[in-house]
Amino acid sequence: MIALAPLTSDANMAPGLEAFGFEAPLRQRELLPAWQQRSAAVPEAEPSRRASAPSIRHIRERRALPTTIATRRARYAALIEAEATRQGVDPELVHAVIRAESSYRPRAESPAGARGLMQLMPATARRFGVTDRWSPAENLRGGIAYLKFLIKHFDGDLSLVLAAYNAGEGAVAKHGNQIPPYRETRTYVRRVLGFLGSG
Question: Active-site positions?
């Protein structure tokens, strides 16, 4: 297991990516405690953000996946592991996002036009060089690249990373770098965090 780098002692500086193990795969046992620590440090002057922070006590509990999802997960596990490791993103985070986005269905399509395992929109696909959103390999490459970008953009704040993946980084910025007050987005953040570590 990769050790998590200590947070900076300078209270005026936000911890860098190294504090979250970004140079190596972000393993769930390191990323979640870091997220907890950052969330606990949010001042009381930011009640909306504190209120939206999901309880993660249950994340450590291992629960069996439904059989159909477990079968689909196994089909793409090696591809996910390889691409996530190559890009330096925790494979378990990728699994959690995919489970929330498509339940591992490569032909999933949303009413808004998002497609594939990681539900890439056309603009996001173009942004990260994906030409075929139906291709599991290309879809994974683009979706993981977007997660990597968001982790860097939000200094490893997992709640904001997930909120931005769902609603766009512009929506998060518009609301003062807090989880936007959209029911769908807040539910999504809680859901993905709930899937982390569930198997």
Answer: 101
